[in-house]
Amino acid sequence: MNVGSIENTGKRPPGKALLRRLVIGARPRNTIRRALLLAGICVVVFRFVWIPVWVQGHSMAPTLQDGAFRFAHRLGIQRRPPQRGDVVVIELAGQRAMYLKRILAVPGDAVQFRDGTLWVNGEEVPEPYVVYDGNWNTGLEQLGPDEFFVAGDNRSEPWEWHTMGVVDRERIAGRVGR
Fold first, then answer.
1. Which of the four, 2, 48, 50, 84, has the lowest number of CB atoms within 10 Å?
2. Is the dihedral of CA 155, 161, 164, 165 positive or negative?
């Protein structure tokens, strides 16, 4: 053998073999099975258990800031009915269009705003989560058996600029984790 020649052994360079083994593994069939199993689990979890939610807008400020990321728990709503004070995800058009709002009144309640103060069943309700209050005034709204009254925590904008009010129980998709 000459000193200056390079011998061709037919082996791959060590960098490519290592990279292939790290990405695919020693047994590609097992890796593909695991990847499919993981994908299936993710589909089930994110379709039926947890809803990933990105906050867009300032209606829930300061509780949830614009750009914040949270998960909403679908099964939690099934185990315990939505209650006053819960932050919930409301479906408008499936999982593509949703709102995050706080439940202010539950089925059977009479609710209204007077000079920015929430009144439920004739009693003033303290709202420690409201930092940016406003001067909202609404008429008295009597909720039906499957109706909830929701609004955002940021009350500084005029009533007309907000999306809130009465929501049917079937549109509440999940409770947002704290």
1. 2
2. positive
Is residue 121 in a domain?
yes
| Domain of 121, in residue numbers | 55-176
Tokens of 49: 């258990």
Strand 110-114: give its sheet, edge to edge: 123-124, 117-120, 110-114, 141-142
List the structure tokens of 138: 């609404």
- Of 18-22, 53-57, 80-84, 139-143, the one with minimum mean pLDDT is 18-22
- Select from 142, 138, 146, 143 the least CA-distant residue to 162: 138
Q: What is the pLDDT of residues 30-39, one digit of tens each?
A: 888 888 999 9
pLDDT digits (tens, 9 = 90+) for 79-100: 889 999 999 999 887 666 788 9
In a domain, 126, yes or no: yes
Phi, psi of 73 (to 5 degrees): -100, 115
Name the domain count of the chain. Answer: 2
Helix (H) or strand (E) holding 24: helix 14-24
Considering the domain boundaries, does residue 89 fall inside one? Answer: yes
